[in-house]
């Protein structure tokens, strides 16, 4: 074969995010002159990770032919507004529900970045003069015009050489496993895999074969704790309400907020907790909760159950209503974004509530390294919010049993569905210890070839 023909048929996979971390998911597939990006996520957590959001990519957005999203969470979709602004002009393929959720999440992300920059400039605590958002709400709205809905389980062709289909992954509404076929070779991207026994979401689809596999490892080194999340929530709420306190739950707007509402509705329905108000203080969470009625095939709830879940909380839409919650000293439950306390309205609630030992801070899932949530869960005596330090005197919990991610056993069970071993399995989307633990289990228990790639590695798949 000539050098030119070899180059034209060479298939490479580049890892431009979600390696050594659970954020910034970006995988670049190149064959000849064609480029497809799977996920276009935002880095979060440690400052050195967040700085990557502002660093130039090693490939030009204008030369990427298509983007495929596994799901709408910001660590998988949140870089899209900058990617489109910087020159991408192709289609962004995603499931119907992911398109609907992205229409909520991305403009909100731009809005929050604008507000954070404005707040920093007004109070003078940013090192940048002036502080600027990574992108704006308008950038996000322009990016949404690139979205192209794709039904589950249908092959869609990007070019003569490349096609893909999306398979249900559980996790959240619209979440997908990507089967990408290039010149007859198949690369499977797990995306974020849900839990088989999740009370709300459907289980992830079993995949039988792949030439190459990219698998997440968020919980690759641990099993979810045994126990009933409703009982744990009940104990916390009863105890805090009895002393006149407030339960503040930082929550991811999509998936986790709805799971929390489900458990709280069940507790209230059987009279297991005091009849104190539940406030859903996140416009994103409110809109995402309403989407459960429109995508009923993707979850286990009946129409009546979905209505009951949405009705258990009082919706807090305006900033004025949110501020008023902090002046109201009655016992209550506040669910507010973001889930790792990296931004959003929950920061204002933390400033008012975290210093009072009558209250409780209840995190509800994985806390990435470098986030305020991770620091608080680890026992920090104070955290920095809006340029000042806030003491942590409230009791702190992290209910990882509420996570919408498969744990290490769940990941291995999903991998066990493959009838033949992939030529190589790339373990990504995990902190270093988690990714390496899963790599080790894959090699020892399945006998597969498995590696943990490095940031910006590019691997030839011939």
From TrEMBL:
Question: GO molecular function, one example?
Answer: RNA endonuclease activity
Query: Gene3D superfamilies annotated for this entry?
Result: 3.40.50.10890, Ribonuclease Z/Hydroxyacylglutathione hydrolase-like
Q: What is this protein called?
A: Ribonuclease
Q: Where is the Beta-Casp domain?
A: 257-376
Q: What is its EC number?
A: 3.1.-.-
Alphabetized UniProt keyword annotations:
Hydrolase
- The enzyme's main class, written as a single word, is hydrolase
The record, for InterPro entries, names: Beta_Casp, MBL, Metallo-B-lactamas, RibonucZ/Hydroxyglut_hydro, RMMBL
- The domain of life for this entry's organism is Bacteria
All copies of the Metallo-beta-lactamase domain together span 23-252
Kindly indicate whether the keyword Transmembrane helix belongs to this entry: no
């Amino acid at each position: 074969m000539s050098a030119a023909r070899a180059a034209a048929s060479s298939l490479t996979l580049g890892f431009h995010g979600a390696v050594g971390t659970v954020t910034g998911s970006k995988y670049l597939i190149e064959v000849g002159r064609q480029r497809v990006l799977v996920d276009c996520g935002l880095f979060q957590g440690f400052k050195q990770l967040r700085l990557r959001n502002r660093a130039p990519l090693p490939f030009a957005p204008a030369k990427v032919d298509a983007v495929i999203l596994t799901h709408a969470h910001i660590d998988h979709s949140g870089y899209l507004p900058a990617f489109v602004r910087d020159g991408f002009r192709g289609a962004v393929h995603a499931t119907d529900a992911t398109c609907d959720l992205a229409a909520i999440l991305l403009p909100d992300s731009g809005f929050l970045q604008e507000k954070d920059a404005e707040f920093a400039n007004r109070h003078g605590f940013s090192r940048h003069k002036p502080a600027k958002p990574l992108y704006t709400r308008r950038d996000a709205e322009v990016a949404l015009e690139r979205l192209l809905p794709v039904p589950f389980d249908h092959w869609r062709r990007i070019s003569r050489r490349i096609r893909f289909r999306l398979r249900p992954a559980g996790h959240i509404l619209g979440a997908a496993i990507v089967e990408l076929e290039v010149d007859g070779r198949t690369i499977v991207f797990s995306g974020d895999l849900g839990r088989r026994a999740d009370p709300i979401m459907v289980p992830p689809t079993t995949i039988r074969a792949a030439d190459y596999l990219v698998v997440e490892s968020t919980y690759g080194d641990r099993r979810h704790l045994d126990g009933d999340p409703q009982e744990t929530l009940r104990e916390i709420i009863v105890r805090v309400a009895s002393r006149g306190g407030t339960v503040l739950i930082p929550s991811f707007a999509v998936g986790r907020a709805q799971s929390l509402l489900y458990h709280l509705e069940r507790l209230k329905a059987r009279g297991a907790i005091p009849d104190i108000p539940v406030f859903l203080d996140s416009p994103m969470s409110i809109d995402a909760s309403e989407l459960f009625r429109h995508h009923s095939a993707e979850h286990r709830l009946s129409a009546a159950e979905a209505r009951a879940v949405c009705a258990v909380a009082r919706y807090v839409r305006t900033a004025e209503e949110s501020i008023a919650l902090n002046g109201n000293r009655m016992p209550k439950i506040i669910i507010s974004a973001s889930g790792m306390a990296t931004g959003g309205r929950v920061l204002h609630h933390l400033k008012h509530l975290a210093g009072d030992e009558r209250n409780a801070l209840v995190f509800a899932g994985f806390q990435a390294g470098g986030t305020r949530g991770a620091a608080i869960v680890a026992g920090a005596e104070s955290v920095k919010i809006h340029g000042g330090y806030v003491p942590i005197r409230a009791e702190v919990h992290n209910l990882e049993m509420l996570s919408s991610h498969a744990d290490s056993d769940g990941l291995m069970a999903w991998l066990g569905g493959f009838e033949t071993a992939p030529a190589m399995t790339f373990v990504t989307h995990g902190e270093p210890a988690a990714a390496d633990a899963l790599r080790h289990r894959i090699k020892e228990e399945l006998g597969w070839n498995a590696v943990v790639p490095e940031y910006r590695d590019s691997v030839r798949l011939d």
